[in-house]
């Protein structure tokens, strides 16, 4: 995969097509405490665009436009977190979206292993390295290892969507999956509003 680095935002005029794989890197996994540092995007053409945000301004109009474009489907793995981070730091509601983790949980009911590494290994036959997952993404300069890791996180999402869609259709769960994808931005808003650890659908 060819890696393109950008500071602050995507370049003007860049067209990533109707299906864009997106992931983020942060200083941790706590909303409100840990800032959004990096976003990586790919149109599935073998190129990855790594954007290092200009914190704390987050002046990224091109990314904001892409995230809110109704004609671009944004592909995530565990999109709930990324969408919440975009809502919190960029002030946008990301939609429409597709989450390969939700799709995996609805389609691959024969396993409880739905992490990206496990799903990619089974459905794509590739082995991903997660060595850089816990590293300093707020650094002034990202290492080649960090860039390669970030690029790999969006390299397989287009292929996963194709394979998971086929499984969802086969099992009669595509409509259910789509309803979950449509609700995902609202689930992220609940997280940002303070209900991240509360199941509001539970009896108690």
Write a concise synopsis of the structure shown.
The chain has 204 residues and is an alpha/beta fold.
List the helices and strands and how they pair.
Elements: E1 2-7, E2 19-26, E3 36-42, E4 47-52, H1 61-68, E5 73-76, H2 79-90, E6 97-99, H3 100-107, H4 116-124, H5 144-155, H6 157-170, H7 174-195
Parallel strand pairs: 1-4, 2-5, 5-6
Antiparallel strand pairs: 2-3, 3-4
Helix pairs in contact: 2-7, 3-6, 4-6
Question: What features would you describe in this structure?
Answer:
The protein has a single domain (2-194), classed as Ribonuclease H-like superfamily/Ribonuclease H (Nucleotidyltransferase, domain 5), CATH 3.30.420. Helix content is 42%, strand content 17%. The chain contains seven helices and six strands; from the N terminus they run E-E-E-E-H-E-H-E-H-H-H-H-H. A six-stranded mixed beta sheet has the order 1-4-3-2-5-6, sandwiched between helices. Helix 2 (79-90) packs across helix 7. The longest helix has 22 residues, at 174-195.
Q: How many H/I helices? A: 7
CATH architecture annotation = 2-Layer Sandwich
Proportion of beta-strand residues:
15-25%
Q: Give the N-to-C terminal Cα separation.
A: 48 Å
What is the helix fraction of residues, given as a range? 40-55%
**CATH domain fold name:** Nucleotidyltransferase, domain 5
* Helix-and-strand structural type: alpha/beta
The backbone outline, from C-alpha atoms, is globular
């Amino acid at each position: 995969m060819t890696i393109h680095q950008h500071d602050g935002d995507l370049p003007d005029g860049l067209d990533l097509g109707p299906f864009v794989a997106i992931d983020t890197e942060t200083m941790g996994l706590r909303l409100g405490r840990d800032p959004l540092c990096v976003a990586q995007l790919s149109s599935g053409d073998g190129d990855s665009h790594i954007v290092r945000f200009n914190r704390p301004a987050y002046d990224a109009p091109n990314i904001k436009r892409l995230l809110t474009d109704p004609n671009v489907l944004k592909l995530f793995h565990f999109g709930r977190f990324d969408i919440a981070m975009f809502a919190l730091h960029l002030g946008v509601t990301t939609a429409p979206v597709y989450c390969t983790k939700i799709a995996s949980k609805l389609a691959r009911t024969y396993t409880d292993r739905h992490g990206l590494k496990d799903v990619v290994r089974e459905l794509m036959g590739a082995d991903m390295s997660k060595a850089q997952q816990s590293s300093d993404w707020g650094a002034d300069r990202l290492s080649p290892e960090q860039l390669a890791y970030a690029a790999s996180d969006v390299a397989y999402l287009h292929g996963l969507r194709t394979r998971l869609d086929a499984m969802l259709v086969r099992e009669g769960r595509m409509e259910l999956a789509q309803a979950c994808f449509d609700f995902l931005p609202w689930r992220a808003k609940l997280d940002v509003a303070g209900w991240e650890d509360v199941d509001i659908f539970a009896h108690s």
